[in-house]
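Dear support,

Our group has been running a series of protein-ligand predictions, and this particular one with nicotinamide-adenine-dinucleotide is the one our PI (initials K.S.) wants archived with full inputs and outputs. We had some confusion internally about which version of the output was final, so please treat the block below as the authoritative record. The input we submitted was:
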Amino acid sequence: MSARTILITGGAGFIGSHVVRRFVTRYPQYRIINLDALTYAGNLENLRDVENAANYAFVKCDIRDAEGLKKVFAEHAPDGVIHLAAESHVDRSISDPMAFVNTNVIGTVTLLNVAKKAWAELILNSILERGAAPRFYHVSTDEVYGSLHDDGFFTEETPYDPQSPYSASKAASDHFVRAYGNTYKLPFVLSNCSNNYGSHHFPEKLIPLMINNIRNNKPLPVYGKGENVRDWLWVEDHASAIDTVFHKGVNGETYNIGGHNEWKNIDLVHLLCSIMDKKLGRAEGESAKLITYVTDRAGHDLRYAIDAGKIERELGWRPSITFEEGLERTVDWYLANQAWLEHVTSGDYQRYYTAHYADR
Ligand code: NAD
Ligand code: DAU
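Confirmed final output from the archive:
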């Protein structure tokens, strides 16, 4: 396999850190540049185990900062971009939609412009000498397809119908990537994935929030009646799918990624309570007493469910573990990593990275 330089944006976040770890460890011949603005959701502690690897570098940069991005492209000459940096939490998009327009739409277009120009004018020759064709990989979400009723699945042909400011901003970014492919012939691939879970997941999202609250005997806020359905995929399986699409996907194509694993929120919360009762030595049913029904999320999408047939058939990707196994590993990780949880949920984390990484 040829030597490549790959710029991964959002690599200090939940999914991005798993993608960075996978690429740094599986492809020692590649140089992996992790570009991240380190917002509240970005945490360099997620990458402690690889931060000293010879093929890894971190750059603190905002994807809205065109000059900063140009410097990174000039210095590192990446021939691949895997773009994950985004504002990712639906509830935050309801209270602050402009942050989502700014990062997810304007940030993505800024990155597209810089990649297009750099690949066309500055480094194309040296990239071609390396034997690697440029590729812009945009990582997106199933939420762009909107909300399903009781049956049916999202396929790559499902029309876009985003319902939240978050999904609208991701849909807009997807459209821009395809438009740059069509108009400027930017080589791209795109994937839309279902809900991820696993280690290093910021505890404002359902699964880590519930694990954290169960452990601390705090109320478990279930929105509405808890009947909304999500299709859960273990984050390391998403990282393996991203690896597959990046290396084997066809330019201009979109791949849906999912785990065929639908759960009603309330059933999932009960399952987590039951697992945690066992792990914490509590009587069965004790943690479930913490379940509290709260006001529903505004415009709450009822159901997401992915048809992952295309990536399975055409690229041979499949999830590697069952939900039971993944959930067990996830709960164990959170119980063993209380310090991480405390850092990300307290202001200490912000001070931590300023103190440790001020020079980056
Ligand atoms: P996350 O919120 O955990 O991480 C986002 C990362 O992006 C953070 O490290 C943050 O510091 C960085 N970032 C944010 N704004 C930035 C900016 N302006 N410039 C540079 N860096 C910035 O998100 P996640 O859950 O890991 O999601 C990663 C990507 O995958 C997103 O694009 C998201 O839409 C997509 N996705 C997420 C899921 C999911 O279930 N979490 C599912 C499908 C797709
Ligand atoms: O489908 C992929 C998307 O999944 C990603 O694109 C998003 O970045 C990611 O955040 C996730 O979006 P959701 O809104 O589905 O995830 P969240 O964990 O916020 O919520 C999952 C479900 O649980 C949803 O129906 C809302 C509900 N919920 C969530 C929270 C935080 C609750 O009932 N209580 C809660 O406290």
